[in-house]
Amino acid sequence: MLGDERFARRMARAGGRRELQRELEQGRAAELPGLAQKIAARHRIDLRVLRGPDRRRAVSAARRALARAAVVERGIRPVEVSRYLGVSRAAITAQLRAHDT
């Protein structure tokens, strides 16, 4: 093993922080279904349509609202939102950018 015992302890603590961070992120991502349901209802869109391939303007607006609420307001990672919606991470980033303009 490279490094001394102090280095090993520091790395073990850092690993624990990464695990804690991962658990926090997973907990936040667990909010997505409920958040998506609320936003779908607010936009009068069925949840299946929100998560589907539909590209109508109203559906895109709802997805943009979900992306903003999840990422900006709740701290959920864009990759988690993209997995939930079945779109690319770049699509979520573009929706967030579109919301800022």
Account of the 3D structure:
It is built from 6 helices and no strands. About 75% of the residues lie in helices and about 0% in strands. The mean pLDDT is about 85. It has helices spanning about 5-30, 30-40, 45-50, 55-75, 80-85, 90-100. The longest helix is centred in the N-terminal third of the chain and has 25 residues, at about 5-30. Helix 2 crosses helix 4 (about 55-75), helix 4 (about 55-75) packs across helix 6 (about 90-100) and helix 5 packs across helix 6 (about 90-100). It folds into 2 domains: about 1-30; about 30-100, Chromosomal Replication Initiator Protein Dnaa, Chain: A (Orthogonal Bundle). The protein has about 100 residues and is mainly α.
